[in-house]
UniProtKB/TrEMBL annotation:
Keywords: NAD, Oxidoreductase. The keyword NAD applies. PANTHER family: ALPHA-AMINOADIPIC SEMIALDEHYDE DEHYDROGENASE. Belongs to the aldehyde dehydrogenase family. It comes from the Bacteria. This is aldehyde dehydrogenase (NAD(+)). Residues 36-484 form the Aldehyde dehydrogenase domain. It is an enzyme of class 1 (oxidoreductase). One of its GO terms (molecular function) is aldehyde dehydrogenase (NAD+) activity. Its EC number is 1.2.1.3. It comes from Mycobacterium kyorinense. Pfam families: Aldedh. The active site is at residue 262.
Length: 504
């Protein structure tokens, strides 16, 4: 396997950070601080200083809030519009950093940056569309209405796999809603975080907005824990594992803070006998192996009608055999490395368990990269006799379990028979089947004739059950970043009481 050297990757990082104007200098590997590593070679490339002033960062964002909430929303949108312009100008630089830190292939890294640009555009439009309702009052000379108000400081915790887009979904929307933001990125992706923060600071400076609206906290899980218990964090938007969400949710609820949770997915697609198989195959392969199976929306379970199960399985296996696995910067590559050794061990463990459960595993072997710390694997297809516990477990790796079904209602029940409820798809040309699936899937995202991943930002993104129930990015997800006030205004000279009550 032909991989870039650690020094070549360092040079790429320097070029990208210089172009973006992100603050240096970066420390040598091994210096005290956060190791900035790459799954491409498994090397530590740099050391990044950890945030040692948590208190000051949060206090600054809290102090900036009153003036920011008093700034008209369309004026707040100007920062986000400028951020979108800077992201457009630097999309290749930022995508380079995403590829270095996550191992995501170049095309997908660029797609992730495009999501940021798209959500900035969405949020700019939103900055002129934050509206409430007026409701018919039961009293004469009265108006009943809803107004929406900023919350305060929004804490954003993001995961390694979408190190920049998820920050942008939250930050672009929170800023136009009048909140200030502090961000705790994954400790695996400090370089992309520095770059995003630098671009936002520049955007604020360019339009004369206070840079204090956005703060960055670089550090380990203990920094996230501080946000969880911090009364000043009005909303904590956290993306990560179900285990993380189970710790975060109740603790924030204990102090009556708000949470927006984007946790795991165990996403399924149903393939019916009427499906356009050429189309389905392309969608299935992208959804299952894109980002090396490390999206929360990755396709993990394929539920195929028994009459076409052998054919679909053979075609998926043959497509998998043609996948180029290797250097994510090589434009021919479709599958880059797993994030780290633990991810690889989890994949091996899941495949062992699937075999023990009677599954037939095709693929899944590690490719020799000539780098002991880099984990390149062939995506695996596993034909399972039935849905066992391992199938119902989210393993963050390219494993696609295949199950056969006879009856569509049973297939929908299998789709729903996992703890998580993020994304789901059906491949069918029968509109009755499509509508039954939309009605029956218990997921936050339910698609027809496209895969489970690759959602557009215009819709609300998120899922049910152990996925956490949060919604972010498009549609009316902005409401999570604001609080609603119900206002009753009496413009008469009488004081009629509601419910017809006479008093005194
Ligand atoms: C994630 O994996 O955390 O729908 C987010 C998708 C992307 C976002 C994934 N737009 O696959």
């Amino acid at each position: 396997m032909n991989l870039p050297t650690a020094d070549e990757l360092r040079a790429r990082v320097h070029r990208a950070l210089d172009a973006i104007g992100a603050p240096g200098p970066l420390g040598e590997p091994g210096a005290p601080g956060l190791p900035a590593s790459t799954p491409i070679t498994g090397d530590v490339l740099f050391t990044v200083a950890q945030t040692d002033n948590y208190e000051a960062v949060v206090a600054t964002a809290a102090r900036a809030f009153p003036a920011w909430r008093a700034t008209p929303a369309p004026a707040r949108g100007a920062v986000v519009r400028r951020l979108g312009e800077l992201l457009t100008a630097h999309r290749h630089d930022l995508a380079t950093l995403v590829t270095v830190e996550t191992g995501k292939i170049a095309a997908e890294a660029l797609g992730e940056v495009q999501e940021m640009i798209d959500v900035c555009q969405f949020a700019v439009g939103l900055s002129r569309q934050l509206y409430g309702r007026t409701i018919a009052s039961e009293r004469p000379g009265h108006r009943l209405m809803e107004t929406w108000h900023p919350l305060g400081v929004v804490g954003v915790i993001t995961a390694f796999n979408f190190p920049v887009a998820v920050w942008a979904w939250n930050t672009a929307v929170a800023l136009v809603c009048g909140d200030t933001v502090v961000w705790k990125p994954s400790e695996l992706t400090p370089l992309t975080a520095l770059a995003c923060q630098a671009l936002l600071q520049r955007a604020a400076g360019d339009v004369g907005a206070p840079p204090e609206v956005s703060g960055l906290l670089l550090g380990g899980p203990e920094v996230g824990e501080q946000l969880v218990d911090d009364e000043r964090i009005a909303l904590l938007s956290a993306t990560g594992s179900v285990r993380m969400g189970q710790r975060v949710g109740p603790r924030v609820a204990q102090r009556f803070g708000r949470v927006l949770l984007e946790l795991g997915g165990n996403n399924a697609a149903i393939v019916t006998p009427s499906a356009d198989l050429d189309l389905a195959l392309r969608a299935i392969v992208f959804a299952a192996v894109g980002t090396a199976g490390q999206r929360c929306t990755s396709l993990r379970r394929l539920i195929v009608h028994h009459s076409i199960a052998d054919e679909v399985s053979a075609r998926v296996v043959s497509a998998y055999r043609q996948l180029a696995i290797g250097d994510p910067f090589d434009s021919a590559t479709l599958v880059g490395p797993l994030i780290h050794e633990t991810a690889y061990r989890d994949m091996v463990g899941a495949l062992d368990q699937a075999r023990a459960d009677g599954g037939q595993v095709i693929g899944g072997e590690r490719h020799d990269a000539g780098q002991p710390g880099a984990y390149y694997v062939a995506p695996a297809v596993v034909r399972m006799p039935s849905s066992t516990a391992i199938v119902a477990t989210e393993t963050f790796a390219p494993i696609l379990y295949m199950l056969a079904y006879d009856d569509l209602d049973d297939a929908i029940a299998v789709n729903n028979a996992v703890p998580q409820g993020l994304s789901s798809s059906i491949f069918t040309t029968d509109m009755r089947e499509a509508e039954r699936f939309i009605d029956g899937s218990d997921c936050g995202i339910t698609n027809v004739n496209i895969g489970t991943s690759g959602a557009e930002i215009g819709g609300a993104f998120g899922g049910e059950k152990h996925t956490g129930g949060g919604r972010e990015s498009g549609s009316d997800a902005w409401k999570a970043y604001m609080r609603r006030a119900t206002n009753t205004i009496n413009y008469s000279d009488q004081l009629p009481l509601a419910q017809g009550v006479h008093f005194g």
